[in-house]
Design brief:
This protein is mainly α. It has helices at 21-30, 41-47. The chain has two helices and no strands.
Length: 69
C-alpha cells in the first residue's frame, strides 16, 4: 500500500461557560479534540486501508457568540 498524508478540516460548535469570550475561545481551542480512528478492523480489512496516525495541528476559532441565558 502507498502512504498518503491528508489535511482535513472539521468544524464544531462548542458551548463553553467562562468569565469572558477570550477565555471561552482559548479553552475551546485547547481542551477539545476529536482525534481517533473510528474504523473497525473489519472495515480496514474490507477496504484495504490503515490509518497510521492522526495528529492535531490546529484548532482555530472563527467566531464567538455570547448566549443570553
Amino acid at each position: 500500500m502507498k502512504t498518503f498524508e491528508v489535511l482535513l478540516t472539521k468544524s464544531y460548535i462548542v458551548r463553553v461557560k467562562a468569565e469572558n469570550s477570550n477565555l471561552a475561545k482559548e479553552f475551546s481551542q485547547i481542551y477539545t479534540s476529536d482525534i481517533k480512528d473510528l474504523s473497525t478492523e473489519q472495515e480496514r480489512e474490507n477496504h484495504k486501508f490503515i490509518t497510521e496516525d492522526i495528529e492535531c495541528k490546529i484548532n482555530e476559532v472563527f467566531e464567538v457568540i455570547k448566549l443570553n441565558n
